[in-house]
């Protein structure tokens, strides 16, 4: 798969995960950065793929990947936004 992907879930009881997913997509949309939203709740294989790319068997959404390169999780995303290094974080430059 190529391009920027945000692994998320439409089925979660965690308000924190919902909030983090919304913030990531809101920021990407606001900066007009194209991405594909991958809903891991639709298929366990997608959850396993997300965790393999993240290198963490317990990783939870949101996780961000560009092509086959892992970019990071929510905390790293927010840090990149605050440091104005989002393009580099997303591996777009």
UniProtKB/TrEMBL annotation:
Pfam families registered for this protein in UniProt: SH3BGR (PF04908)
SUPFAM superfamilies, per database record: Thioredoxin-like
Keyword Metal-binding: no
InterPro entries per UniProt: Glut_rich_SH3-bd, SH3BGR, Thioredoxin-like_sf
GO biological process: cytoskeleton organization
Keywords from the named record: Acetylation, Cell membrane, Cell projection, Cytoplasm, Glycoprotein, Membrane, Nucleus
Membrane-spanning residues: none
Gene Ontology CC: cytosol; nuclear body; ruffle membrane
Localization terms from the record: Cell projection, Ruffle membrane; Cytoplasm, Cytosol; Nucleus
Stated family: Belongs to the SH3BGR family.
Role played: Could act as a modulator of glutaredoxin biological activity. May play a role in cytoskeleton organization.
Protein name: SH3 domain-binding glutamic acid-rich-like protein 3
Gene name for this UniProt entry: SH3BGRL3
């Amino acid at each position: 798969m190529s391009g920027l992907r945000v692994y998320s879930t439409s089925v979660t009881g965690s308000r924190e995960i919902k909030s983090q997913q919304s913030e990531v997509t809101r920021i990407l949309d606001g900066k007009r950065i194209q991405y594909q939203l991958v809903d891991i709740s639709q298929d366990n294989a997608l959850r396993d793929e997300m965790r393999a790319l993240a290198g963490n068997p317990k990783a939870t959404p949101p996780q961000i990947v560009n092509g086959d390169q892992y970019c990071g999780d929510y905390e790293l995303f927010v840090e990149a936004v605050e440091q104005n290094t989002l393009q580099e974080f997303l591996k777009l430059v």
